[in-house]
Amino acid sequence: MIKETLKESISVKKKILDNEELIAKIEKATKMIEAALRADKKILFCGNGGSAADAQHLAAELSGRFNYDRDPLYAEALHVNTSYLTAVANDYSYDDIYSRLIKGIGHSGDVLVCLSTSGNSQNIIRAINQARKMQMLTIGFTGQTGGNMSELVDLLINIPSKETPRIQEAHITVGHAICEVVESRIFPRS
């Protein structure tokens, strides 16, 4: 079973590697994030469950460091303030947790990176709609179909799988590739 799981994970990543259109989208995401950071804009991440953990992980790679010591970059996961999250979920709706915060802290030119294996999470959809109203750029990380996010985001990175664990593993791999490239371009080693 362990070997089968590893084979499935490798298979999904091989499909990404062999898909030139998807590789081009990942490069485009890298350029969008790099350009925003060079313009002193924010990179905001959101997701639910495992995708929230992945969003927080990727935000930390940019705001802390990835491969080597360098200045921090402005990246944050929108769900890390549990007092805010639980208050808005209680007083308004769980569907509003991200859109409300984006309305408060987002600005034109910021980038919202949304992780959703299905692409159908209502709180993520509302976040995208709010970001678009504010002229933010949006990148969606999803599974194979892209779900409802596919028609809303500026750039869709849809992993060629329908299996949640394989999608999430690929989100981290692709996210790491983006962080590594962004770090090396903004802070080239001499």
TrEMBL record:
Please give a single GO biological process term from the UniProt record: D-glycero-D-manno-heptose 7-phosphate biosynthetic process
- One GO CC annotation: cytoplasm
Which pathway does it take part in?
Answer: Carbohydrate biosynthesis; D-glycero-D-manno-heptose 7-phosphate biosynthesis; D-glycero-alpha-D-manno-heptose 7-phosphate and D-glycero-beta-D-manno-heptose 7-phosphate from sedoheptulose 7-phosphate: step 1/1
Question: Which class of enzymes does this protein belong to?
Answer: isomerase
Location of the SIS domain: 33-190
On the tree of life, the source organism's domain of life is Bacteria
Residues binding Zn(2+): H57, E61, Q168, H176
- Cell location: Cytoplasm
**Cofactor binding, note field:** Binds 1 zinc ion per subunit.
Record CDD domains: SIS_GmhA
* Alphabetical keyword list: Carbohydrate metabolism, Cytoplasm, Isomerase, Metal-binding, Zinc
Which terms does the record give in the GO molecular function aspect?
carbohydrate derivative binding; D-sedoheptulose 7-phosphate isomerase activity; zinc ion binding
**Which positions bind substrate?**
N48, G49, G50, E61, N90, D91, S116, T117, S118, S121, Q168
**According to its UniProt record, which reaction does this protein catalyse?**
2 D-sedoheptulose 7-phosphate = D-glycero-alpha-D-manno-heptose 7-phosphate + D-glycero-beta-D-manno-heptose 7-phosphate
Record bears the keyword Zinc? yes
Q: Tell me one Pfam family matched here.
A: SIS_2
The Swiss-Prot or TrEMBL record describes its family as follows: Belongs to the SIS family. GmhA subfamily.
The record's misc note reads: The reaction produces a racemic mixture of D-glycero-alpha-D-manno-heptose 7-phosphate and D-glycero-beta-D-manno-heptose 7-phosphate.
> Tell me, what does this protein do in biology?
Catalyzes the isomerization of sedoheptulose 7-phosphate in D-glycero-D-manno-heptose 7-phosphate.
Full protein name = Phosphoheptose isomerase
What species does this protein belong to?
Jiulongibacter sediminis
